[in-house]
Amino acid sequence: EAAAAFGCLISDMWLGELDCVSLKGFHSALGKRYPTFSKRTQQDAQEFLMCVLNELHEALKTVRTQLWKRRGVTDAKASRGSVSETSIITQLFEGQLSYDITCLECNITTNRPESFTVLSLPIPSKSACSLQDCLKCFFQQDTLTWNNQIHCSWCGTKQDAAVKGTITKAPQIIIFHLKRFEWQGKHNRKLSTDICYPLSNLDLSPYSSPLTCKEVEYSLCAVVNHSGSLDDGHYTAFCKHSVTEDWYSCDDAQITNIPTSSVQTDTAYLLFY
């Protein structure tokens, strides 16, 4: 139901017959599947995005399975090469990370692959930093000790370990979630750090495997902004027209053309490249 409502929403948007479209139908359908988002309170945009992508992915998989059954395609053929687990969502947004985990006792390194749809990046400064600073912080080598020790199969016990991740498959569209929150005592507070992010030529090669990632330069295509506090605020979006390359600000029903210089903002929360 949510996927069908999303399809109607996109259809209305692309027909171009309306100045703006209503999200009520889609919001209602998604709220039935995820009751948290049916409440009239502020919810996290990144969590909402993940739910939407997951819902669309599962719905598209179901539709394709039904089509295969009508055509007499066997489950064995359908599942060959994990094709049955893919959809246009995974084709566009899913990337692959590889974590090299080195036991600091025996120095044996093991590899752990992990797929991702959104990269949640830490913010290393409270005043100002760049997106590259956030990426460096995310991909820097980390040491796991104490309660975070890993079980080394060679040593047979838990050991301290060094962990470093790299991108082994870059998605067509990469989404960055800027973690604008931190614990301060018993309270979670928002970070208003001014993060400088490029509008084009974002280079991910320093964090990518040279053997598997070739073209890893991206251009910004959308931004989700959040103003206000963690418990109360307002979401807006900047979207780049795929044909004219003009930028537009989407603030509820207000859609306005904005200059490129306005795309850089200290309220950015999600970046789409």
TrEMBL record:
It catalyses: Thiol-dependent hydrolysis of ester, thioester, amide, peptide and isopeptide bonds formed by the C-terminal Gly of ubiquitin (a 76-residue protein attached to proteins as an intracellular targeting signal). Keywords: Hydrolase. Gene3D superfamilies: Cysteine proteinases (3.90.70.10). PROSITE patterns: USP_2, USP_3. SUPFAM superfamilies: Cysteine proteinases. The keyword Hydrolase applies. Its EC number is 3.4.19.12. InterPro entries: Papain-like_cys_pep_sf, Peptidase_C19_UCH, Ub_carboxyl-term_hydrolase, USP, USP_CS. Residues 1-273 form the USP domain. This is ubiquitinyl hydrolase 1. It comes from Nyctiprogne leucopyga.
